[in-house]
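Shipment paperwork, digital attachment
Item: protein structure file
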Amino acid sequence: MISARKVVLSILLMLSSAAFAQRYRISDLGALRAGSAVPAALNNNGQVVGRSGMPHGEMTHAFVWSGGRIHDLDTLPGGDYSAAFAINNFGDVVGYSNAARNLRAFLWTSTSGLSDLGTLPGDTGSEARGINNAGQIVGSSSGHNGSRAFIWSSSTGMQAIDALPGDKESQAFSVNDSGQVVGSSVGGQGTQAFLWTPADGLRALGVLPGQASSVALLINNSGQVVGSSSGSDNTLAFIWTAPDGMKNLGTLPGGDYSTATGLNNSGLVVGASGSALGLHAFIWNALDGMQDLNSLITSSNVVLSGAVSINDKGQIVAFGSPGAEGAHTHVIELDHESHAGPLHTYLLTPLQ
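Attachment content:
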């Protein structure tokens, strides 16, 4: 008779094999002005947002890719630069644009175009980084005393989210459909990842063992949080949950750097990791750990150096560079996952 344990192990092995075997069809989404395109997020409808400009990142404009085309979102009046950072499932986009005098957070909709979200009282600049399906927006507002995280809605306007006790500044990067917000709080002890809820206020999420600072970049509707934790020697991607706290996602072989920037509601994580071949995009799941996305795509002529977002259909938006034959073994060196060099934006769609 087969034991229950053997049955469970057999099922786990089959699931692991199926997950590892997942491959992706890759599509180049193009760029504005035949230049560089750096993605930031995608929604469940496969719409992608980011910034695009000249080949080395100059004169960038916010864009949304939808319906097989890349669309220029332009800038606020008086501006010449903009960037988009998040999009909800209704196609509403947030980011920032310079205006006549300062950098300002914006909301873009297909019916109203760009709208300036303003600032917190006494501040002069702002930027928007996240939006949920209820239309709540988060980001930071800045002035002479530094930056303060905010949450905005059409009914309440912009409200401040203070820093953790003893800290001076805060930034918010993501908000889920329950209104939970994550970001970073900055003070004399460095940067700390935080979770904010309307009922309970701020909660510090801590750091990985032996490290000194952290930043939380995304929260899903289950309350899982991803970001990175840093020490004197390295930076490592993490996933945080309320029951288990912060878990180290590790790096690709040969690397000492990783950051998690994308998370869907199934707990799949994407990001960028150092490796023996330079900076590479990764996907992580709880069963198989971290895998190099370059080994899972259909094209051998592209180097994916980072992945920024994954939706609930398993589609991934990543950035990288076209390479020569055998690009999977090509070394690519970029200073950061948001490097503004001559990059291409790619949409990865799971093969059935």
